[in-house]
């Protein structure tokens, strides 16, 4: 029931997730037997066997599940990890945010929201010179601020984030909402596994309309949740729920240790 073409991608996930991912794929196949064969025959993103790259942390290390909409529609950007644009490296420049960050609207607004959380920006003054001043501080020799997007991903993982998309794939010929619906049985299995493990339930952070599909899943009521508009909306920068959740994490600061907290 699971196409053999998916085995290399499954092998790249943390071993603690392997039986859960296989169960999730079987749930997709049970709901629509034609879906997975059609998927592996298509030119989908993320490529290079990164379909399950989000599942790099051990399941017991997950403290938060951030659910986005779907992969970036560009091979160099789609990493299989929610919100982590593979085309972006440096976060800062001498004029503010780096060129690649500024081109990635959602990432740009997310970083500005984090700068507000750090007290380095005001929600009402988050362009031009205030951003340039924050960047100069971040790049100063005595700064403890992260410098690259891979460092941000490491920071998120250090806080136990599972960075998951509602739809694990992007195909230009398929409406994203259709792929998201096809992956719902998979997400149900993932959430059930997290709900049934030992320890506290992780918090779900849900962004955007496609992520709201998660609200209809059977186990959703068992999880604490934080919901916001998608970060491509400029209003996200001033969202008080996002400030309350992310401010204590200090994601823009370098961490002394890499172990999840």
Please, what is the average pLDDT?
Answer: 93
What name goes with the CATH superfamily of the largest domain? Uracil-DNA glycosylase-like domain
Query: Which fold name corresponds to the CATH topology of the largest domain?
Result: Uracil-DNA Glycosylase, subunit E
Give start-end ranges of low-pLDDT stretches: 257-261
Textual characterization of the structure:
This protein has two domains: 4-80 and 154-230, Uracil-DNA Glycosylase, subunit E; 92-143, no CATH class. The protein has 261 residues and is of the alpha/beta class. Residues 257-261 have low confidence and may be disordered. Strand 2 (92-93) and strand 3 form a beta hairpin. Helix 2 (18-31) runs antiparallel to helix 9. The chain has helices spanning 7-11, 18-31, 35-40, 99-103, 105-117, 129-139, 149-158, 176-182, 184-196, 208-211, 240-246, and strands spanning 64-68, 92-93, 96-97, 161-165, 203-207, 225-228. The protein is built from eleven helices and six strands. The strands form two sheets. It has a four-stranded parallel β-sheet with strand order 4-1-5-6. 36% of the residues lie in helices and 9% in strands.
């Amino acid at each position: 029931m699971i196409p053999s073409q998916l085995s290399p991608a499954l092998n790249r996930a943390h071993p603690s997730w392997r039986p859960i991912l296989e169960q999730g794929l079987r749930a997709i196949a049970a709901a629509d037997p034609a879906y997975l064969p059609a998927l592996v025959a298509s030119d989908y993103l993320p490529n290079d066997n990164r379909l399950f790259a989000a599942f790099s942390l051990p399941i017991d290390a997950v403290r938060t599940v951030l659910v986005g909409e779907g992969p970036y529609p560009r091979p160099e950007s789609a990493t299989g990890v929610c919100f982590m644009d593979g085309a972006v490296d440096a976060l800062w420049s001498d004029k503010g945010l780096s060129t690649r960050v500024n081109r990635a609207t959602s990432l740009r607004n997310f970083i500005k929201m984090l700068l507000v959380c750090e007290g380095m920006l005001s929600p009402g003054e988050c362009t031009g010179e205030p951003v340039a001043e924050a960047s100069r501080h971040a790049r100063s020799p005595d700064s403890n601020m992260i410098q690259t997007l891979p460092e941000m991903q490491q920071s998120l993982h250090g806080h136990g984030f599972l960075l998951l998309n509602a739809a694990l794939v992007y195909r230009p010929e398929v409406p994203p909402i259709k792929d998201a619906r096809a992956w719902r049985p998979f997400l149900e299995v993932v959430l059930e596994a997290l709900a049934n493990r030992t320890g506290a339930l992780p918090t779900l952070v849900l962004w955007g309309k496609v992520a709201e599909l998660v609200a209809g899943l059977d186990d959703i009521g068992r999880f604490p949740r934080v919901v916001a508009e998608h970060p491509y909306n400029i209003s996200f920068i001033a969202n008080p729920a996002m400030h309350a959740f992310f401010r204590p994490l200090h994601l823009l600061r370098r961490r002394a240790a890499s172990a999840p907290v």
